[in-house]
From TrEMBL:
<dbReference type="InterPro" id="IPR042128">
    <property type="entry name" value="NuoE_dom"/>
</dbReference>
<dbReference type="InterPro" id="IPR002023">
    <property type="entry name" value="NuoE-like"/>
</dbReference>
<dbReference type="GO" id="GO:0003954">
    <property type="term" value="F:NADH dehydrogenase activity"/>
</dbReference>
<dbReference type="InterPro" id="IPR041921">
    <property type="entry name" value="NuoE_N"/>
</dbReference>
<dbReference type="InterPro" id="IPR036249">
    <property type="entry name" value="Thioredoxin-like_sf"/>
</dbReference>
<dbReference type="GO" id="GO:0051537">
    <property type="term" value="F:2 iron, 2 sulfur cluster binding"/>
</dbReference>
<keyword id="KW-0411">Iron-sulfur</keyword>
<protein>
    <recommendedName>
        <fullName>NADH dehydrogenase [ubiquinone] flavoprotein 2, mitochondrial</fullName>
    </recommendedName>
</protein>
<comment type="similarity">
    <text>Belongs to the complex I 24 kDa subunit family.</text>
</comment>
<dbReference type="GO" id="GO:0046872">
    <property type="term" value="F:metal ion binding"/>
</dbReference>
<dbReference type="Pfam" id="PF01257">
    <property type="entry name" value="2Fe-2S_thioredx"/>
</dbReference>
<keyword id="KW-0001">2Fe-2S</keyword>
<feature type="region of interest" description="Disordered">
    <location>
        <begin position="276"/>
        <end position="314"/>
    </location>
</feature>
<keyword id="KW-0479">Metal-binding</keyword>
<dbReference type="GO" id="GO:0006120">
    <property type="term" value="P:mitochondrial electron transport, NADH to ubiquinone"/>
</dbReference>
<dbReference type="GO" id="GO:0005739">
    <property type="term" value="C:mitochondrion"/>
</dbReference>
<keyword id="KW-0408">Iron</keyword>
Length: 314
């Protein structure tokens, strides 16, 4: 490969080798395309020794090593273990593992096959692909809160599309988890109103109490903690969501708990451990739904009807 470079014109005829500038497009484009491969340091050293004069050998070697370091930085995600990747925020790639590869059999249960038929009935027969999101959600519920690639392939067969079309959806929406989660998947709202109201302290309390990092699963497989963007109840910030996969798709629930404190979220975890079910919504006993503490101070009576028309006659 290196010997082949000698027959190539890497710079214009009127330019010496030590006068290559960024404006020499023929040389810069060739070098860019050739060095994108970024082979081991020894090969790069030989390339620079040929291109640059011997007086620049030390600089060339330093540059070569720096390019190799950059290569390792960009390749680093490929060498990470699956357990260290975040769930729905992971880079959009898949690495086969013993419990997540396309060769593993996966299909809907008989009960969920009927649910899938009911979901498909909501869409025209020539638009089955419109059911991808609810079918993926059903598959995730069945599989304990996450989607293996074999489940995505099964959904692709149901809606009669290429698997890549399903992968595009599963990797786009953050509520689809592509690595294992706990039976109780706790999501802390991280958007500005909740953050101002202390969501970081709530997440820290959960992680410390459970002894895990974000997106890790506890040793008993009961809990995992993640972050989610706006949950849509900023007036009751801060808040968390509990996705309950402990009873499969039949008993699946997804509830919001608002006005939480670091102490209250620890109590919620302990209640879930004991199998207790707490009412969703505000956890502030002084509030009713999204009303102010202590009750309303305005709108204390039914508003007067508009004088311009008779509502009962409509």
């Amino acid at each position: 490969m290196i010997d082949g470079l000698k027959g190539l014109r890497l710079w214009p005829n009127n330019t010496r080798r030590n006068q290559i500038t960024p404006t020499d497009h023929s040389s810069s484009l060739f070098l860019r395309s050739f060095l994108l491969a970024l082979r081991p340091v020894e090969v790069i050293d030989r390339i620079f020794e040929f291109i640059f004069p011997s007086t620049s050998e030390m600089l060339a070697r330093l540059t070569a090593r720096r390019l190799q370091e950059i290569r390792h930085v960009f390749c680093r995600p490929c060498t990470l273990q699956l357990d260290s990747r975040s769930f729905s925020t992971a880079l959009n790639y898949h690495l086969d593992s013993p419990d997540n590869n396309p060769d593993l059999p996966w299909e809907f249960t008989n009960v969920n096959k009927e649910k899938a038929k009911e979901i498909l009935s909501h869409y025209p027969s020539n638009y089955k692909q419109s059911a991808v999101i609810p079918l993926l959600d059903l598959a995730q519920q069945q599989h304990g809160g996450w989607l293996p690639v074999s489940a995505m392939n099964a959904v692709a067969k149901v809606v009669e599309v290429a698997p890549i079309r399903v992968y595009e959806v599963a990797t786009f929406y953050s509520m689809f988890n592509r690595t294992k989660v706990g039976k109780y998947h706790l999501l802390v709202c991280g958007t500005t109103p909740c953050m101002i109201r202390g969501s970081r302290d709530i997440e820290a309390a959960l992680l410390k109490h459970l002894g895990v990092k974000r997106n890790e699963v506890t040793k008993d497989s009961l809990f995992s903690v993640g972050e989610m963007e706006c949950m849509g109840c900023c007036v009751n910030a801060p808040m968390i969501t509990v996705a309950d996969y402990s009873n499969g798709s039949e008993g699946y629930t997804y509830n919001y708990y608002e006005d939480v404190t670091p102490e209250r979220v620890v109590e919620i975890v302990e209640m879930l451990k004991r199998g207790e079910k707490l009412p969703p919504g505000t956890q502030n006993p002084k509030r009713i739904r999204s009303g102010p503490e202590g009750g309303n101070t305005t709108l204390l009576t039914d508003p007067k009807p508009p004088p311009c028309r008779d509502l009962d006659a409509c």
